[in-house]
Amino acid sequence: MGETIKLPKGLKLGKDVRTQYGALCYRIVRGEPQVLLVTSRTRRRWIIPKGWPMETVSPHRAAGIEAWEEGGVRGKTEDRCIGVYTYTKLGDGQGPDIPCAVWVFPLKVKSLTKEYRESKQRRRKWFSLKKASKKVAEPELREILRSFKPRQTR
Prior knowledge:
single chain; 8 strands
């Protein structure tokens, strides 16, 4: 990845914290970035697409695969992590809650498909950065959204 990532205060990665990779899916409309949020399957909260590491798949590519499965997103995922946020994945009643650290990678959206793996389980919607930051529950993700500046493409 090449860049040093500043972890949220008090977070120490180890066996008690699981790593996930997330995609900050964005587009530029009239010169301003918009981000695509999806709902979580159970609690219907607004989130970014994210998931577990995949064997033989780089972190940024794993984030892109999650964006496809959870939001029907096609695009280019950058290999730079723009931040990390934490949350607790609630157990299913049979297992414990799991603390997670999500590494976030920008993904410039080229297209959305109507049918995708989780289309019947999730909603998706475009938001301005400011509105998206108010929709998500995690304080560190709010800050990542507020401070996001897409790289200029040539």
